[in-house]
Amino acid sequence: MKKTNLKAACLGGALVVLFLIGWESYLRQSGFICSYNDDESLWAATRRNIYQATPAGPVIVGTSRAKFDIDLQTWEGITGKAPVQLAIVGTTPRPVLQDLASDPNFKGTLILDVMEPLFFQPNGSFAEVSATKRLAYYPKWSLSQQASFVINRQLEDHLLFLDEEKFSVNALIKRLPIASRPGVFVFPVFPLNLEYGLPNRQTSFTDSFLTDTAAQAEVKGVWARMGLTSTKRGVGGDTLTNIIRSVAKSVDQIRARGGQVVFVRFPSSGEVWNAEQQAYPRELYWERLLKETGVTGIHFADYPELSRYKCPEWSHLSPADAKSFTKDLTRIIETKTKWSLQNAVSQNIP
Description:
The chain is α/β, with parallel strands linked by helices. Helices cover 51% and strands 7% of the residues.
């Protein structure tokens, strides 16, 4: 390499390093905290743990509500075993349920999050996209991708700018103020200070979001634009019948191998809860689902200890509420299912 080229390369490298140092410093001074990429690799790494699932450490399948509302550390402190968190933001859990049902080696316990607006989406809907991508990725997860994942995990412990969901070029481009137009729906973006993720796929609101009423109002507006406050009746007729039948088939496959399933309806509040009650009446959806699948269901509205919470943005619990919610949920699950969640549950751990 010529001397001139070497100098240029060194100068370019120095500028890149200075830029990254400046970018990292700016993010830290802006109050952001470390958050781990909840990408296909993290999901694949988590899915490998499903074969050790038990009632004390179940597999959790569902939406973002399951990721926010079950505090994995609290659960592990009660039962002695951590759950396997497979919930995926913004997607119906049915594809993952079908995948586990088709896996002859899965014989464990499953907690299934029933968020009606996503759970009862028809086959082929947009709500399946994220789930199908991860299901397709898992069996093809190569050794090089696994090695890259391990290395990246070590870097994510220390560098904020590696959060691709917030600070990558594509993520920042998506934050440009581009309005929807006829035939093109532009998904609204969430506040940058909304949440953070942990390596175990736990998701929680940040402290700054919980004290920022303007940001909370912004997210409520996002839910409205995405239809979560719509009172339009959900799917019915043959579509609903086929959805419930497919769920029943998957549940039967898991049970046939000795596995167990429980449905949980996590809390919502405000306009979202009001809309869900009108769009998805319990007798037509929740009750029918339980009856035709024969699965034990725990609906937050049936228990004072689960229904006492107010979601900051109408749809997910705060970290503090998730801890107490998880304690109460484990006790209710043990009572209703007669599963043994170890003695710790019965000892009323504070």
